[in-house]
Amino acid sequence: MSDLRIWVAVALIGLATYGFRVSFIHLFGRIDEVPPRVSRPLRYVPPAVLAALVVPDLVTIRPTALATLADERLIAGVVAGVVAWRTEDVFATIGVGMATLWLFRFVVFA
């Protein structure tokens, strides 16, 4: 494939992406209020994205089961999950999760 074809493909994909985003801005810019049928499912997008980013790093398989269960990231993730469930506060979740991670990393498992 020639360099020109590659650059044309990149430019066309970029224009399609830009057009897709602009169409949503134009469409939702004319709507005063988002319908409940759309806003209800959108409430679940942030937790789903956060879970997709965090969970794979927490549950990676170690060479032994004991190493997996004694992993400071998994322990801090479970503690942060409990704090998120009980308080529903993002800053408290991040703060307690990081404090637990640092405690286990630098004090307990040092």
Secondary structure layout plus pairing:
Blueprint (H helix, E strand, L loop, with lengths): L2 H27 L6 H7 L2 H14 L6 H5 L2 H16 L2 H19 L2
Helix pairs in contact: 5-6
Overview of this structure, please?
The protein has 110 residues and is an all-alpha fold. The chain folds into 2 domains: 1-32; 44-108. Helices cover 80% and strands 0% of the residues. The protein has helices at 3-29, 36-42, 45-58, 65-69, 72-87, 90-108. α5 (72-87) runs antiparallel to α6 (90-108).
Key terms:
110 residues, 2 domains
**Number of separate strands:** 0
- Seen as an oligomer or otherwise, the chain set is single chain
> What sequence of helices (H) and strands (E) makes up the elements?
HHHHHH
What Rg do the Cα atoms give?
22 Å
Low-confidence stretches: none
The major β-sheet equals: none
Mean pLDDT, nearest integer? 86
Count of individual helical segments: 6
Intertermini distance? 54 Å
Give the DSSP E fraction (strand runs of 2 or more residues): under 5%
The 3D shape can be described as: flat
Proportion in helices: over 70%
The total tally of domains equals 2
Kindly name the structural category.
Answer: mainly alpha
Provide a quick synopsis of the model.
The protein has 110 residues and is mainly α. It is 80% helix and 0% strand.
